[in-house]
Amino acid sequence: MELSPAAIMQAMEKELYVADENLATAVYLALKLEKPLLIEGEPGCGKTEVAKVLSKMLGTELIRLQCYEGITAAQALYEWDYPRQLLHIRLMERSKSPEEIASEIFSEKFLLKRPLLQALLHDGPRPPVLLIDEIDRSDEEFEGFLLEFLAEFQVTIPEIGTITAKRKPIVIITSNRTREVGDGLRRRCLYLYVTYPSAEKEKRILSLKVPALSEKLSSDVVEFVQRLRQVDDLSKKPGISETLDWANALMALNISEITPDVIRSTMSCLIKSEDDSARLRELGIL
After folding, report:
1. For residues 173 and 161, what is the distance between their CA atoms, to the nearest angstrom?
2. Could you give the C-alpha distances from 259 to 121, 241, 262, in angstroms and in order?
3. Mean pLDDT along residues 170-198
4. Domain spans of the chain?
5. 196-209: per-residue pLDDT in tens?
6. Alpha carbon distance 227, 61 (integer Å)
7. In the CATH scheme, what is the code of domain 5-69+122-194?
8. CA dist., res. 107 & res. 244, Å (int)
9. Do 105 and 88 contact (CB within 8 A), yes or no?
């Protein structure tokens, strides 16, 4: 595939992702300069989808590291398969010396490879896409470890030695901004901020993702969702994923027109907290 921002926009749309020029240029530069791309923005605005679409577009494997509170380097890199190691020791202790047993049990076949090590050991024809999802949910200590990993793309396993990436993975890092990502990681990455789409772009997304939706219903869905996003004090404004859920729900219910009753009965697709529902009732929207 010929690399250019325009070609990336076209290729991503073939995978049902509507990319604007800023996004396509950021992805192009990440590929060309071999630098990680940090994508920040509101939940549900398509950040994770960029990595998924990119792997399909390039015909390579997607390796996903889902971050969470308390995640450790071991959980992201590797762990030893202790039950299998113990079983192997019991089977071999009568026929082999302790040194021979140790060399066998601390070999790659007893290694549980987590996403970062999988990315280093990937041996496909193209480098994998490594998605580090929701980095803001991890703590600063893990972020510091990740910064070191991205600098060298290698890891040292004391029992085996140093493993270096055969091919530098394509790295996409996402953040919902629940905490501020450190300056060190920001300097290591290219940066892109993704926000809610314009009405025109959201209609285009619906036409690709829910093609059976009528043009009028698509316009009404987008108009209502865009209106919700303008409401102050909502703890969770509906993202693109909620728009798609609502459109699919309307199709499943064979609804051809949005009425107040329809809105009330299907609002679970768009609003995900009672406080937000109460706020909309107070404003007369529900």
Report:
1. 27
2. 54, 22, 5
3. 94
4. 5-69+122-194, 199-282
5. 999 999 999 999 99
6. 38
7. 3.40.50.300
8. 47
9. yes
